[in-house]
Amino acid sequence: MTEAHPLRRALPLAILVAWSLSTASAQAAAPLPTLDVNAYMGRWHQVALYPNRFQAQCLDSTTATYRLLDDGRVEVANRCRTQDGWDETVGVARPRDGTVRQDGGRVLAPASLEVSFLPKALRWLGVGWGKYDVVHLSPGAPQSGWAVVSEPSKQYLWVLSRTPQLDDTQWAAVTAELQRMGFDLQRLKREAPPRE
């Protein structure tokens, strides 16, 4: 009997290792188990992102402002500076997979939303809703600090901060956390500093 080729013996192990790594990175980017909705409200500055077609016109000064509505949904106002001035779009977010509990405030469990920027008259169609998961909050967040927002396929990524810029120590913490969660740092674009 001939001995099996070394690659043939190693292939099942390599497949198992690759599968476990891909599974680990997918699990690592899961939404947070809970999110204090009231604390998350307010203005966040975009400090980095995976470039995407719907923000191609944005040069800098990108913000997302969240406001809790009476019906429990969240108004989302995105704004950025463009070559021609300012671009603003307003949409609405609602819980995706979880529920909003009343625990002396509003707690979303898990931190999964779906967001639509379609006109209000078209939102009932059930199309045009994007997945929005808060997958990481830095210490001190959401009142201060930074947040990582993505969605299950990891095709979209935003790093948001309560301040317009992060210092070098904070940025190093962001990139270390993104790498730990399995995000592709080569795709990451840091937002240009806001112009005065």
From TrEMBL:
Keywords: Cell outer membrane, Lipid-binding, Lipoprotein, Membrane, Signal. It is found in: Cell outer membrane. GO terms for molecular function: lipid binding. Gene3D superfamilies: 2.40.128.20. It comes from the Bacteria. InterPro entries: Calycin (IPR012674), Lipocalin_ApoD (IPR022271), Lipocalin_Blc-like_dom (IPR047202), Lipocalin_CS (IPR022272), Lipocln_cytosolic_FA-bd_dom (IPR000566). Residues 35-191 form the Lipocalin/cytosolic fatty-acid binding domain. GO terms for cellular component: cell outer membrane. Its main location: membrane. Involved in the storage or transport of lipids necessary for membrane maintenance under stressful conditions. Displays a binding preference for lysophospholipids. Belongs to the calycin superfamily. Lipocalin family. Homodimer. This is Outer membrane lipoprotein Blc.
